[in-house]
Amino acid sequence: MAATGSTASGESAFYVSTPIYYVNDAPHLGHAYTTVAGDVLTRWHRQRGEKVWYLTGTDEHGQKVMRTAESHGVTPQEWADKLVEEAWKPLWEHLQIANDDFIRTTEERHTRRVQEFVQDLYDKGEIYRGGYEGPYCVHCEEFKSPGELLEGDLCPIHKKPIEWLQEENYFFKLSEYGPRLLEFYEANPDFVQPASARNEVVQFVRQGLQDLSISRSTFDWGIPIPWDPKHVIYVWIDALLNYATAVGYGSDQAKFDTTWPADVHLVGKDILRFHAVIWPAMLMANGLSLPGRVFANGWLMVGGEKMSKSNLTGISPRELTEHFGVDAYRYYFLRAIPFGQDGSFSWEDFSARYTSELANDFGNLASRVAAMIGKYFDGTLPEPGDAGAAEQAIAEGLATATAQADRLIGDNLDFSTGLGAIFDFVKQVNGYLSDQAPWKVAKDESPEGQARLATILYTAAESLRAVAVLLNPVMPGTCEKLWASLGAEPHLGPLADQRIADVAKWGRLPAGASVVKGEILFPRLDDAKS
RNA sequence: GGGGCGGUAGCUCAGCCGGUCAGAGCAUCGGACUCAUAAUCCGUGGGUCGUGGGUUCAAGUCCCACCCGCCCUACCA
């Protein structure tokens, strides 16, 4: 069972994907939530020193895009191009997303390989021609699922009677994969996470699977079925394959070998089934190894309602970043909401956490330490004297925080608790300063007093050095400022090159470093807005 | 209809196999301090643990019913 990473060569990349987002609309908070989570996860692994591949992109085929484009008087391709260039890519840049690739399903590197993949399945007898029968709304021009019909078999949109229609389609023999899928879930209990999502998937598969129609012939915005071009490939089959085509499937074997399969597929829970059932079945059918994990994140709720494209009560990502800043935005959702659960958020809660955790605890700590080193040592980090029990406790606190954060964030995708561990350390350092009261020690001008003062401030600065590294995956802009403020780069090199494994090694920031009080890390919010 | 999850201090939530489990963070209030972004540190607050029954020496913690909210029950990305 290929549950995890793959090729024996140690070069195998930690491969993480987001869903490829449907270009029907502009990105909203939910899209950004998933994408930021993946970015933090991959940045964390890069700081572990691992080879990483972070993929995102857009899903551009399908009837909805076609219709939306028509209603705007442009071709589907034009519509997709416009949204990708004007909305999607700019937002990811704005949010500091460090993706390694961005795939679009209309790109030839994708469409050609999708055809090959489907042709392979056809040749292997995994796909057959059949008829799909179901309730069809002539006004919508599409099939409905029986469950969504209103009483009396009315179309939920048009409130008009549907008719039963039959369409010739190609089907994938999904029904044959139930037992193998269950076996796989059993052998890989962490394949679908969180556990609640796994239970739903397992229960669903146990009910028995039906074959999946994988072609459409009522519209043409899609990838043609190679042996029967009157049909286009069902958009989900098309979309899922991006995870393979983007990393060289069928075109760049070397790259494919060192990247495939994905270690983590991040998905919204609305598309869990496609990733946890259909996708592995497709891969089994074609003899490819299976991904390591499918992790479903929850909904963002605002005022108790789900955030989504249909519910545009939405606050846009940019509204929030304009007020709170990009780094605080990246931090907030991961800190406030346990990853994998639905989470309610509010402007008030964001403000509260910004002020308490970011400005007061973290930002202010950086300020006071830099200020004192400036005031008492002219901005040159002093040589510490002997460490006492208090300093020992700080070093141990750092080791604990680092170990916890590494496991929780890097392995478990428990960003909330992991960040909590780092911020517990920040609070510990604030407490250490209160206890040691360096501003009082500074009044003792004896050599012993000055040595003690040096030890205290060195301890605080060294703690900040570690915090900058630990928080860099989440708040790269802020941590870069802190790194500069500590004068770390000339001695330790670029922040992004700092390794998680070295964070807790005490004493890395050398005496003599030039510490300056830079700009305020998290300025107080103008409370105009509430 | 069937299945699942949740309803614990003002807010967001921890509480595994029943017996210091009535908690944490934030907010509030009081105190300390002054290096710092009027920040920090310490202390404090009494919430019928959704409702009503039941089991037990003992129940947020088990059982039953009910109320409320959410999710799943296949081809919408």
UniProtKB/TrEMBL annotation:
Designated name of the protein: Methionine--tRNA ligase
Stated role: Is required not only for elongation of protein synthesis but also for the initiation of all mRNA translation through initiator tRNA(fMet) aminoacylation.
Positions that bind Zn(2+): C137, C140, C155, H158
EC number(s) reported in the record: 6.1.1.10
Motif stretch ('KMSKS' region): 306-310
Major enzyme class: ligase
Localization of this protein: Cytoplasm
Source organism of this protein record: Microbispora oryzae
Keywords of this entry: Aminoacyl-tRNA synthetase, ATP-binding, Cytoplasm, Ligase, Metal-binding, Nucleotide-binding, Protein biosynthesis, Zinc
Cofactor note: Binds 1 zinc ion per subunit.
Family classification: Belongs to the class-I aminoacyl-tRNA synthetase family. MetG type 2A subfamily.
Cofactor(s) named in the record: Zn(2+)
InterPro entries: Anticodon_Met, Met-tRNA_synth, Met-tRNA_synth_2, Methionyl/Leucyl_tRNA_Synth, MetRS_core, Rossmann-like_a/b/a_fold, tRNA-synt_1_cat_dom, tRNAsynth_Ia_anticodon-bd
Subunit structure: Monomer.
MF annotations from Gene Ontology: ATP binding; metal ion binding; methionine-tRNA ligase activity
Signal peptide, first to last residue: none
Domain Methionyl-tRNA synthetase anticodon-binding: 381-528
Keyword Protease: no
